[in-house]
């Protein structure tokens, strides 16, 4: 490698050296851009020879890095698409679930309303029956009380009538009749 560097540096200076030795004659035969072009070609050749392996290695590594980045980006894109699809599915299911929850709550509310109405009707019927029983009981109690009152008043009135119309002779006859009935019963 050191020899190639020495040769390359020599090649860079050789054409100029040749022109310095015989400038007028060579200047007529070779245009001025030719030595510069030869120098450039030699310089590029040396650079290519020296940088070929490191450059290839660098570009291979860079290509591998880019491929890895592209593969990772493709995986991430696929994962993001899968997550997006999952979220869309959840959102679609969420709409369906919300509709189902609304329908279920409406059904439950209707059932609860019907249950409350039935319970209210049942309670009203119980209250009606209980009030009828209370009315009947109050009626019976009032009738008993009325009969008792009527009996008491009848007895009082009969007693008053008997006292007013019963004479001592009627009283004697009544006592005699009771005495006879007692003797017959013996």
Report on the architecture of this protein.
This protein has 186 residues and is an all-alpha fold. The chain has one domain (2-185). Helices cover 96% and strands 0% of the residues. The chain has helices at 2-21, 23-29, 33-165, 168-185. Helix 1 (2-21) packs across helix 2 (23-29) and helix 1 (2-21) crosses helix 3 (33-165). The longest helix has 133 residues, at 33-165. The chain is rod-shaped and about 200 Å long. Mean pLDDT is 83; it is low at 1-8.
Write the layout of secondary structure elements.
Elements (H helix, E strand, L loop, with lengths): L1 H20 L1 H7 L3 H133 L2 H18 L1
- Helix fraction, binned, reads over 70%
Distance between the termini: 171 Å
Structural class: mainly alpha
Number of helices: 4
Global geometry: rod-shaped
Number of strands: 0
Give, in order, the helices and strands.
HHHH
Measured by DSSP, the beta-strand proportion falls in under 5%
Tell me the major beta sheet: none
Give a quick set of tags describing it.
186 residues, mainly alpha, 0% strand, rod-shaped
Give a summary of the structure in a few sentences:
This protein has 186 residues and is mainly α. It contains 4 helices and no strands.
């Amino acid at each position: 490698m050191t020899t190639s560097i020495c040769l390359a540096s020599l090649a860079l200076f050789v054409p100029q050296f040749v022109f310095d030795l015989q400038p007028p004659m060579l200047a007529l035969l070779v245009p001025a851009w030719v030595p510069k072009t030869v120098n450039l070609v030699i310089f590029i050749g040396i650079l290519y020879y020296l940088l070929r392996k490191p450059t290839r290695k660098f570009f291979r590594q860079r290509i591998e890095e880019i491929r890895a980045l592209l593969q990772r980006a493709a995986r991430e894109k696929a994962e993001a698409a899968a997550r997006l699809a999952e979220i869309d599915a959840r959102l679609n299911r969420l709409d369906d679930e919300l509709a189902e929850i609304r329908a279920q709550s409406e059904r439950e509310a209707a059932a609860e309303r019907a249950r409350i109405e039935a319970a209210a009707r049942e309670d009203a019927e119980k209250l009606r029956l209980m009030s009828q029983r209370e009315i009947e009981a109050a009626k019976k109690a009032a009738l008993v009380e009325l009969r008792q009152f009527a009996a008491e008043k009848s007895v009082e009135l009969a007693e008053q009538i008997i006292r007013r119309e019963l004479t001592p002779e009627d009283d004697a006859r009544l006592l005699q009749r009771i005495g006879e009935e007692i003797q017959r019963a013996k």
